[in-house]
Amino acid sequence: FNPTVDPIHSRLIFAASLWLTGLLWAAIIAPPATRRRLGIGFLLAALLPVYLITMPATVGRADTFEFQVVAPQLGIAHPTGYPLYLLLGKLFTLLPLGSVAWRLNVATMVYGLAALCMVYLIGQKLSERLGQTWLPAFLAAVAFGLTPTFWSQAIEAEVYTLHGLVVAVVLWQILEIRDWRLAIGRLAATIGLGLTNHLTMVFLLPPAGLAVLLAYWRQRGVISVKLVGKTAVFFLLPLLLYAYLPLRWLAVNGEPMGLRRFVDWVVGGRFQNALQWTAWLHDPTRYEVVGRLFLSNWGWVNLLIALLGVGYLLIRYWEAGLLLLLTWFGFTFYALNYYVPDLAVFLLPAHLVVAIWWGVGGTAVLVVGSRAWNAPHPTPYSLLPTLLLLPLLLPAPATWRQVDRSHSDGLVTWGMGVLNQPLAANAAILADSEKIAPLYYLQQAEGMRPDLDIMVLPDEATYRAELDSRIAAGQTVYLARFVPGLEGIYHLRSAGPLTEVSTQPLASVP
User: Fold this and answer.
1) Which of the listed residues 382, 403, 424 is the one where a domain comes to its end?
2) Are residues 365 and 462 in the same domain?
3) Which of 107, 113, 112 is nearest to 72 (CA)?
4) What is the pLDDT, as a whole number, of residue 336?
């Protein structure tokens, strides 16, 4: 017994109880076709409020901050450019609700919820193929949506939920191939489109190729030059979105991007040293790192259910089992060899596959349960869905506290206070890596004080050189960070939270 009052835990238990009551009622009362449709409704009812409540309303940090600044003005993001994400994000910035940053957070949430709906639909098809209901697939989608990594990426402007959505669409297509001649074009177009958001879509080429090959082996037919050409066109057409980079580069920077810079940008040349393709052979700690990421998101019980799903699917429907295993292996292999601090987000497609396996594992549990408890003793069997749900919901309060960003204002209040001051026209603000985010976001996305030069620089020597050159040119300079060695050379005075620098005595109140 824990006497500590935990409001988050209590509210979650209450809300989950109401939600579970409605879910079980629908599973029992509603006709089968209606139940399947209700699944998406219950999925959105469970996760939409959770994501909205834990979502920050203002600017984030690092890549999130960059996307919230770049997307509204159709600028250039860091390599690999992410043109699909930026163009879709621009559409969401036109919504007449909330701040620009919040609108882009909502866009990311929408992609995430759509990805979870696709996970549910994939799992539902597999469950029906295996002779069970929609419920395990539904629980699998909820499980995935409540994992810490997915949850954290679904509430801030980031590319990974959109990546997950496209991955889920491709998996739906490769598991639903009826006519390989039609499927090959759709797959090529979807993968090509996905590559304009994240280059790790290349790891879907092997399972997609195998799916088409298996369908071809069953149906036969002729592989004509015309079909190959059409497939190439379907694949290449979406890649034209990368033309966004040189076009916008010229508009933003006033100079041509150039072929060499374009190629280096698209392939992420600056990150290539972090990718060590033989790390899986020479660095055994990578297995521990990746294994820990799976365990921290799912826990032992859920991973065992997913492992049961792997075996059950390979036995009952080996083609789907093999395709999912190949997909999981590709993304996990990439993570084993990629040395970056935010490795968890690169495993999201692998987690998506684990969610599908979890649904199949839940199906296996229900199949075994239906045989163990037949009609004269239905009560234990009817409790199985609830028991499956427990390991999903129990970690939710801790995850909530871990990912909740609703109380963070991203220093926007501070930034508004700074920019609402009577700062000198056409002045410069030299900020640090923390304070640049609210200042630059408010200027670029919200239109405050467009006359100011707001910048962050790599080191103290560069700050000093920039300060000296701007003061020498007669520009007013404010500091939003400490720069050493100014005493005896410059005169300083406070300008609210900023420090004004001048070569002349500053005796008056600003």
Assistant:
1) 403
2) no
3) 107
4) 95
Three-state secondary structure along 239-279? HHHHHHHHHHHHHHHCCCCCHHHHHHHHCCHHHHHHECCCH
Whose CA is closest to 441, among 422, 478, 413, 462? Answer: 413
What pLDDT sits at residue 1?
43
Long-range contacts at 297-301 (CB < 8 A, ≥ 24 apart)? 297/147, 297/148, 297/149, 297/150, 297/344, 297/351, 298/143, 298/147, 298/351, 298/354, 298/358, 299/391, 299/395, 301/391
Secondary structure percentages of the chain, helix, strand, coil, to 5: 70, 5, 30
Contact present, 89 and 66 (Cβ < 8 Å): no
Query: For strand 428-431 and strand 453-456, is the pairing parallel, antiparallel, or unpaired?
Result: parallel
The answer to whether position 431 is within a domain reads yes
Regarding whether 71 and 204 lie in a shared domain, the answer is: yes
Residue 343 and residue 203 share a domain: yes
Q: Are residues 315 and 269 in the same domain?
A: yes
Sign of torsion over alpha carbons 243, 249, 254, 258: negative
426 shares a domain with 399: no
CB 61 within 8 A of CB 94: no
What per-residue confidence (pLDDT) applies to 380? 46
How far apart CA 417 and CA 347 sit, in angstroms, is 40
CA atoms within 13 A on the CB side of 236: 6
The kind and range of the H/E element at 399 are: helix 396-403
Number of domains, the chain = 2
Cα dihedral across residues 438, 440, 441, 446: positive or negative: positive
Give every residue of the chain whose pLDDT is below 70, as ranges.
Answer: 1-13, 16-17, 20, 24-28, 30, 32-33, 35, 221-222, 369-386, 506-510
Question: Which residues constitute the domain of residue 198?
Answer: 10-403
User: Last residue of some domain: 361, 383, 403?
Assistant: 403
Q: Is residue 33 located within the same domain as residue 180?
A: yes
